[in-house]
Amino acid sequence: MQHSLLSPVIQAATVPARRFLVLFLPTWPTDFLKRHDGQLKAPLALYERIKGGLRLVAVDAEAAGKGLSVGQNLADARAMVPELTVREIDRPMLEAAFADFADWHSNASPLVAVMTDIAGSGDLVLDITGVAHLFTGERAMLAMLLTRLRDLGYTVCGAVAPTIGAAWAVSHFSRSQVVGPAALEPMLDPLPVAALRLSSAQISALTQMGLKSAGQLRLRERKGLQARFGVALLQRLDQAYGVLEERMTPRLPLAERHAERRFADPIGLMDDVLMTTHDLAIQLAIRLDSEGLGGQAFHLFLYRVDHKVMTLSVNSARLTRDPEHITKLFSNRSERLAGEYDAGFGIDMIRLAVSSVAPLDAVQLGAFAHGGVAEDLDRLNDRMSSRLGSLAVLKTHMVASHIPERAARLVPALVANTDQPGAGGWPQPVRPLRLLPIPEMVAINAEVPEGLPASMIWRRQSYKIEKASGPERLGAEWWRSNQRLELVPPEPPRQPEPGKKAEPPPYVPELLLFHPDAETRDYYVVEDKEGRRFWIYRHGFHRRGEPAKWYLHGIFS
Questions:
Q1: What is the CA radius of gyration of the chain?
Q2: pLDDT tens for each residue of 284-299
Q3: Which of 98, 157, 341, 546 has the fewest CB atoms below 10 angstroms from its CB?
């Protein structure tokens, strides 16, 4: 009993406190454009049409130093700074570029998200819990991230704190630093209320009330604040001080099992990348083997020094942890890149991750392995799919239906075996290997309407039927529709002869329907005098004045 009481305490003590790092790039749009377009020179400003006027929405540091600011009229800005370079902002392009910029930071932490509370770009948050020791501490990690961004020409500030809100506030309204749990309240209290990520209307109203700092707001009576500003203000306040947990949404899915390698000197050749991939696959296989797991999806992340990430993903039909097979899949996948592969100024880090993991028992490897034909076929499908594409290699997927055109469909070969229960579970009748994409109408001659076919005309060519067997009757699948059965309308009653009583109308029962235009099919296997065998069927039944139609559905080999 004593052990059960102490266990929760011990487990809680081992759970590390969350730590978050926020990077603030106030002039990222202009810095990005100047870096990728050498013809753009400072001072640079971006404008947008707002309410019928052209106003500035982003300015670089030099333009801001000359008195320009966001929201200013473009004409006034040109008058103040005649040498100003202006461009119309392309928000979708910048947001997409910033998303790629955020992915590049996953080489520091696997959990990276873009903060869109205030602006669509400019704020990054990294969950560095359990990661900082790889950089010899949080201060060294923060300094490394800030230094490499400044070396690339970006204006950046950053902070590490126990909450996302606190890290954002410090990075925007204080100097770059690391904030410990004990220093959270003393650090946040003097900051302005705008540091809580509030709307402009809320900031203006709080300023009119004399509440200018976060500390004043924290000590204010909460019921009155909620009555006037709603729950959103209290939520931001509690998130910043750690009372309410704030979750981030990572851009890249978290891969708990991965192996990575950093390079002192960047590499660029694909052969070097594949050699490193093989080494990482061995490391990953050792870890998966120790846990008794295997994976089906493997992802290779190539981090370039020019803040871009290239991603290669491959899939396996079966669970695997064989490093040779994994490396071969990436080798085949790389052949599809052809001229698209571009290492830029070099690759300084490679990460191999695995997802879709499941238990996998140990298997015999070496001379006495007996994997069987099925495993070899799956490996062949994996290699062809990685080289040609998943949609280029297909397999037959059985469906629980007795309608021939519904009984099977093509799916990618990498898809797991998902045959429907009952599909192929009963004795299968004779079927041709080749079905026509669409049944083609044929002309049939028979001795009697319901008898066996005697001759057939298909595509203007006549075939003399020597042998025939059948019929095999297939009805429509009534469970696919909720409509009622549509019976053959009865013949109209004959006019009674003079002096005789009229006949009563025939009885028509009420039955459920499968489909209004789905009629019974009678299939026949027929063979002509030259030995060619066809699979034909009669659609529906013969009616007075309306003979049934015949179709050719398949050809036997």
A1: 36
A2: 999 998 998 988 889 9
A3: 546
